[in-house]
Design a protein that fits this description.
The chain is α/β, with parallel strands linked by helices and 186 residues long. It has five helices and nine strands, in the order E-E-H-E-H-E-H-E-E-H-H-E-E-E. The protein has a nine-stranded mixed beta sheet. The N and C termini lie far apart (39 Å). The relative contact order is 0.19.
């Protein structure tokens, strides 16, 4: 558990190491994530279990607002679904959450706002997103989370939050480095 920390990355590029600050995930109080993103542009969290990965998703969702779009980037089996399940829990959604790999989008309306969960791994062309009506979700009354969003970058909104999940087996089977970045397209 000692490796379970948050490290701020000044200017979102990680080169200014002397400004790194470590914090345990349990120390992330309400409003802390928003403050870190506003002040630093990005930060990362190291987790050592699926429960901690889900907890980070939950804490992020507790601070989310309608109209926000979050993207999830990471290899197969890195924990995107676990993170998403925690995110749904943070919105107050109690029904089971799974990756909508074949349906592309799953809409959950049982929480404090609608939750639009996309998995675009099987999208053949960005035009398929238009057929699904992605704009209603991205710019609607709920919050959107998109797995494999790197496949549809050209239609992402001007501002979104990118979440990158990475494994490092040298640090343990359940170890994850989760980077959260405030993104602005030009």
């Amino acid at each position: 558990m000692e490796r379970n920390r948050i490290r701020n990355r000044k200017n979102g590029i990680g080169k200014n190491r002397k400004h790194e600050k470590s914090m345990k995930i349990e120390e992330l109080e309400t409003g802390k994530i928003e403050t870190l993103l506003q002040e630093q542009g990005s930060f990362f969290v190291e987790t050592d279990s699926a429960e901690e990965t889900a907890l980070l998703g939950q804490k992020l969702a507790e601070e989310s607002r309608p109209g926000q779009v979050y993207t999830l980037i990471g290899d197969l089996g890195v924990g995107k679904t676990v993170f998403t399940q925690g995110f749904a829990r943070g919105l107050g959604i109690t029904e089971p959450v799974s990756s909508p790999t074949f349906t592309i989008v799953q809409i959950y309306e049982g929480g404090r706002m609608p939750f639009y969960h996309f998995d675009v791994y099987r999208i053949g062309d960005v035009e398929e997103m238009e057929e699904i009506g992605y704009e209603d979700c991205f710019y609607g009354e709920g919050v959107t989370l998109v797995e494999w969003a790197n496949l549809i970058e050209e239609i992402l909104p001007e501002r979104y939050r990118r979440i990158t999940l990475e494994k490092n087996l040298e640090k343990g089977f359940d170890y994850r480095k989760i980077t959260i970045e405030e993104m602005r397209q030009q």
